[in-house]
Amino acid sequence: MVRRKTTVDTWAMKRPAWNGEPPRDGEEAKERIIAAAMRCIDRRGAKTSLSEVATELGVIRQTVYRYYPSTEELFSAVGFAAINSFLDRLVEHLAGISDAAELVVESMAYTIEQVPKDPYLGLFLNLGEADSFSRGATSATVFDACRYAFARTDVDWEALGYTGDELTELLEFQLRVLLSFANDPLPGRDGAQLRAFLWRWVTPAV
């Protein structure tokens, strides 16, 4: 049985594939799909569909399915792509803080406050796939990105003894605490109360 083409598919097929600029390889195709998804999310938020992303790219849905079989997988890829951008903003926010304990508290508080507001990371958190998100957030890729971000702050981690595995363990500790807030946020704390809570219970580990 031949599937009847939808209006979106038919319209996409009338345009040059990839809007006339085919990707060089699979990696570029993924990058362009993610970029198109971000543009669609800017307009439609969680209502974004794979069909809309395909239309944005000038391809049929099957082309997007080849790389991302579901909306959830595409949104996850968008979330991971947004992590580096968020870390850049975090490092800028932390500029001038040279005390390790203060930086750890502020980095966690800022992340807890800002991630749900990020149109891509916030959508990622609301996918309802907590286990999948937890595994991704503690992946080697995320650790590497976080290590690079912390190395760009004004704290002399090496002088404090945080090198190699020690710094990785500190980052893992932070990420696991942040995951608990992401999966089960506690309402009712303002910024000062959140920072006081983190200072009381997190800084002894630093």
From TrEMBL:
UniProt KW keywords: DNA-binding, Transcription, Transcription regulation
Record bears the keyword Hydrolase: no
DNA-binding region coordinates: 49-68
Residue ranges occupied by any HTH tetR-type domain in the UniProt entry: 27-86
SUPFAM superfamilies: Homeodomain-like
Signal sequence extent: none
Protein name, entry field: TetR/AcrR family transcriptional regulator
Species whose genome carries this gene: Saccharopolyspora halophila
